Amino acid sequence: MSAGLALAGLWLVAGVVAIGKRALNQGLVAGGDVSEAWRGGELGRRLSELEVTLDEVHELGLKRVAFVRSDGANPMISLATHRLFPAQVVPIWQGQKDLVKGLASAEKMGLDGLIRFGPNGAWQKAAVKP
Amino acid sequence: MQFIPALGTWGLCLLAGFGFLQLAGLRRNGPEGVGLALLAGAALLALFVTLFSIPGWVTAPVLAAAMLGVGAFGVFEAFRGPEARPSLCGGSWLAFSPALLVVALAFAQAASRPVYNVDAQRRWVLHGQWTAEYETATPPAVEDATWGTNHPSYPPLITGVTALALELGADRDTGLRPLFPVFLFALLAVVFGFARRRAGPRVAGLITLSLALVPALSFADELGLGAAAAHADVALAAFLTALGVLFLDRLEDPDRTPLLAIVAITVGCVWTKNEGMAFALVMLSLTAVLLLFARNRRGARDSFTLFAAALVATLVWKVVARNMPVAEGEDYVSGGILALLAGGFERLPDILGRLGAELVDFTLWGPVWLLAGLWVLAAAAGKVRTLVSWLPLVWMVLGFSLVIAAYMVTGWKDGRFIVLMDVSLARLLLHHAPLVALMIVMLFPSQPAPGSQIGKEASA
After folding, report:
1. Chain B residues closer than 8 Å to A31 by CB
2. Cα–Cα distance for residue pair B92/B99, rounded to 1 Å
3. Strand A64-68 vs strand A113-117: parallel, antiparallel, or unpaired?
4. Which of A31, A73, A123, B67 is the most buried (most CB within 10 A)?
5. Which of A113, A103, A126, A109 is nearest to A63 (CA)?
6. Which residues of B229-250 are buried (b: 16+ CB within 10 A; e: fewer)?
């Protein structure tokens, strides 16, 4: 019983220190939109812009949309998957970085839309006819 | 007010779970009664989603009618019989209240930000969206192999809870995260009830608050950790802990803990995550063998019965979801698993190194794993004398072994297991962290109820 009390007491004291240290770094309640959740910055800016693009794509009523991704783009694919439902989002993995290849691949896969982050630093979307 | 549909969903689960537990004969008061009712209700909801997915009837009116029906029948039976009526208002809420504040903080976090975690958007919430859209958890629309990376074959409990909230009007961005801190509440409530029976309300409050303060469990806002994330890991931790608590209770006093109630929680484990499926099956079969060796035949028989329930639940979902695609390299349950395991030993040093680094991350785990080590020292010094008291540690070692085995066999993204560990190891360890609380509770003597059989079986 005394061993149990000792362990429980140690747990509480060290646990308060641990969560206190984390709270100092993280903040007590972290609010904000998707881009803020991903710590803002360049990724956050891209996510904010993507939200606008996704709304436009959603209105097109497409069924299967390719998303040309590069490394580190998982949050973007996830956001697209979440927002475009019931459309299916199919990631086209790195190695197909230019739009021509992406379009060709999308047509081959039977997709009817494509989203990619263009070389001019803006999101590009295109309807594809399989 | 985006959280109202989430609360409505849990209200239905509470009513159905409370009714079911009354029918099963499990009478628990206060926080523990509420926590167990929430978990049993979620397991019932998963059952209804599974069954109604076959004809495509997963709609709010059908689910609500089924849940209300079970709840009303159970409440009627509870208040008709001569036994003492359960009181959800009693049971030392005051001692539980510090832990409740941590749950409130998690709820504030959940309500302050939309769904954003990668796995949540591509898996749990997505599955909830298509279940609500197509009125079945297994729609033909996702049978195409290209949906495999979204894991349509994953079990239906989180899907069901999410889909019902969407059906009740939850916003898919901001209305779903408030569902998830309720699993933390249930977890803490179950631990509190267990600790209260052995150590009294004040020590129970201390242990429960300490568990609540584990950052990975309640507060960490990264990689799908913390109770506010729209993930299944805290939920699975809650179900596995409840299974452990009820099983230990039944070993000590079978009259107080009917088997049917444990069956519901076991099914909840199996239908929350694939890891729950694997762990419940292995845990229950191993425990049965251990109890058999200890000549505790009744305990072994109970364990085999629960194993059978877990197996049936696994097979039922496998049959219902038989057309759902599985992503390449992520089939962890086929017959080829042993061959993969035998070939995975060269990964072991890297896996153990990464695991060791994870366990000493103080701002994620606090002292929880250190305490497990100290508990072993205390046990070795003679503080733990019965097999039953060792069971939480046995289950923890088993859980770690399964986690290591999973990384040895994974073919995820051509076998990039270190990357997979970076994004999933903490969540897998989370499932077993609450066992440390049960281990500490087992250092306190059991308190027999008048006329109960406590102590007779515990000495096995």
Report:
1. 112-113
2. 12
3. parallel
4. B67
5. A113
6. bbbbbbbbbbbbbbbbbbbbbb
**A119: distance to nearest CA of chain B, Å?**
25
- CB spacing of A8 vs B378 below 8 angstroms: no
Contact: B116, A37; criterion CB under 8 Å: yes
B149 touches chain A (CB under 8 A): yes
How distant is the Cα of A121 from the closest Cα of chain B, in angstroms? 23
Q: Which residue has the tokens 């429980």?
A: A8
Question: Other C-beta atoms within 10 Å of B381: how many?
Answer: 9
Q: ipTM score here?
A: 0.90
Going by C-alpha positions, the residue among B369, B343, B347, B338 that lies closest to residue B356 is: B369
For B154, phi then psi, to 5°, come to -65, 150
B188 and B36 Cβ atoms separated by less than 8 Å: no
d(CA B27, CA B374): 34
Q: What is the C-alpha separation between B255 and B277, in angstroms, rounded?
A: 27
Stronger pLDDT, A60 or B44, i.e. the higher one = B44
Cβ–Cβ contact A94 with B under 8 A: no
Nearest alpha-carbon partner for B279 in B119, B430, B437, B127: B430
Of B118, B133, B371, the CB nearest to A10: B371
Q: Could you read off the pLDDT of A82-122 as tens digits, one per residue?
A: 999 999 998 876 555 566 777 777 777 788 888 887 766 67
Residues 126-145 of B with CB under 8 A from A: 126, 129-130, 133, 141, 144
What percent of the residues of chain B are helix, what percent strand, and what percent coil, each to the nearest 5?
70, 0, 30
A95: contact with B, CB 8 A cutoff: no
Q: Do B366 and A90 touch (CB under 8 A)?
A: no
Q: Which residues contact B287 (CB under 8 A, 6 or more apart)?
A: B247, B299, B303, B391, B394, B395
Q: What is the 3-state secondary structure (H, E, C) of B188-249?
A: HHHHHHHHHHHHHHHHHHHHHHHHHCCHHHHCCCCCCCCCCCCCCHHHHHHHHHHHHHHHHH
For residue B29, the SS3 value is coil
Per-residue pLDDT reduced to its tens digit, A36-59? 998 889 889 989 989 998 988 888
In the block, residue with structure tokens 């070939």: B343
B18 touches B129 (CB < 8 A): no
Distances (CA, A) of B204 to A119, B194, B198, B226: 59, 8, 8, 22
Which chain B residues are closer than 8 Å to A29 by Cβ?
105, 108-109, 112
Contacts of A19 (CB under 8 A, 6+ apart): B213, B214, B215, B218, B219, B366
Q: Are strands A123-127 and A113-117 parallel, antiparallel or unpaired?
A: antiparallel
* The predicted structure's pLDDT at residue A110: 81
Give bridge partners of residue A123 from the DSSP assignment: A117
- pTM, rounded to two decimals: 0.94
Q: Are A70 and A82 in contact (CB under 8 A)?
A: no
